[in-house]
Amino acid sequence: MWYKLVLFVLMSIMIYFSFALPAPQQQIGESSRIFYYHIPQAWICVIAFAMSMFYSIMYLRKKEIKYDDKAAIAAKLGFIFCVLATVTGAMFAKVTWGMYWNWDPRQTSIFILLLIYGAYFALRGAIEVEEKKAALSAVYSIFAFVTVPFLIFIVPRMVPSLHPNDSIISEDLKFNIEGAISLVFFSALALFTVVYIWLFNIGVRVQLLMRKQLEEEDF
Amino acid sequence: MPKASSGLLSRSLAVYFKDLRLELRTKSGLNAIMMFGVTTLAVVSFALGQSGLSPKVLSALFWIIMFFSAMSGLAQTFIREEETGTSLILNLTAEPNSIYIGKLLFNLTLLITMTTIITPMFFVFTDASTDNILPFLVVLGLGVFGLVAATTLVAAIISKASVKGALFAVVSFPILMVLLMVLVGATEKIFDNESLSAVSSELQFLIAYVVVMTTISLLLFKFVWRE
After folding, report:
1. Domain range for A143
2. Which residue among A13, A148, B109, B226 is least crowded, i.e. fewest CB within 10 A of its CB?
3. How far is B96 from chain A (nearest CA, A)?
4. A96–chain B nearest CA distance, Å
């Protein structure tokens, strides 16, 4: 219980300072404050995806259904954060580039991540038998994850026509963060991670209770 | 069927020739994939005609036709095993690696056959032209390899699910999207009459993609097949 209280207090302080401090990137102006929220969301999205793949590998090795549950919950949360990151990213793009969507490489990669999550859930929905569902979706999640390095490291360097606003994004990565701004940013990263872990644990508990209920109904 | 002691290649070829013989009996897979290709091509042609399309539009249209044709037929070989109930017997007589390689070769044959017929038709119907026949064939060949390498494992997954048809395209697309982006870019350059060296980074990507996808599929296939 106590860590939720700490989280509440720290999160409030973080949100306050994210608006009280001067904008992190003077050139872009006030809209650059979104980076305190957008980057942690994108970070959780990738973490969740990696966790989902990790549990998928664990399932294929151990064949225990709890790993499949965890992989699915991580994917679900990853999908939510992925949507949030896409929406905040599009808002930022509208303000700075004048368009919500322009197939910048980062927008492309997050779009494909969303598609992968979508396909993963579509696949899970289409398989009835539990073990079959677990094994096949685990294979798919690993297979899809392999394409991500292509997406993030290779394609952006190859298709320059796809990212006319590259300068803003690469500046984004090299944000001149120091002092108070970097403190707020990294605490935002840490706090969002704690929120994710909390949600993940709730998801695992709910799944466990649902399994118990199903077992009792069977008897 | 050759003995289990014979090499991986000959066992894979046994699976391949079995599928090829089945296909030649009915030609169902090839018919579906061909007709789909022709239909899409016809739609493209009468909607846009010979209106002097730009290289960008042409290359996009070409790979849209290729993608949807591939989606219409490449899952057939696994779905047939499930529908006729022969997957169990295949499981007893061959190990996963040789099944995967056999199926991969079969899908490759199917798509190459389709491509050799559709591509000249595409040039005729849309009035596309390029001076770089050889670079075009290289990109096309690697594109076909890439499509097959990435979708064969997905086809195996799909054959075990309940709604197979629609799901195959949906589940393959996120994996193929990177490939298609690069292919469209490379083909556009070739339609613009640029030389092979202009697409060298695309070629490197395509080779890497084919190798990575085939390797990871080989590693994962046994988990799908044993289900």
Report:
1. 34-218
2. B226
3. 15
4. 26
Please tell me which of the candidates B157, B181, B182 has its beta carbon nearest to residue A136: B157
Q: Could you read off the pLDDT of B35-87 as tens digits, one per residue?
A: 888 898 888 888 886 677 888 888 999 999 999 888 888 888 888 888 888 88
Residue at A28 is within a domain: no
Q: Judge residue A30's burial from the number of C-beta atoms within 10 Å of its C-beta, 0-12 exposed, 13-18 middle, 19 or more buried.
A: exposed
Q: Is B211 on the interface with A (CB under 8 A)?
A: no
B201 in contact with A at a CB cutoff of 8 Å?
yes
At A155, the pLDDT band (50, 70, 90 cuts) reads low
Considering only CA atoms, which of B156, B82, B73 is closest in space to residue A123?
B156
Per-residue burial over A154-190, b if 16 or more Cβ lie within 10 Å, else e, is bbbebbeebbeeeebeeebeebeeeeebeebbebbee
In a domain, A63, yes or no: yes
Report yes or no on A14 lying in a domain. Answer: no
Q: How many domains does chain A have?
A: 1
Interface touch B178/A151, C-beta < 8 Å: yes
Reported as type and span, the H/E element at residue B38 is helix B28-48
Instruction: Please check whether residue B153 is in contact with residue B221, taking contact to mean a CB–CB distance below 8 angstroms.
Output: yes
Give contacts of A59 with chain B, Cβ < 8 Å.
Answer: none
**pLDDT tens readout for residues B152-175:** 999 999 988 877 777 888 899 999
The H or E element that residue A214 is part of is helix A179-218
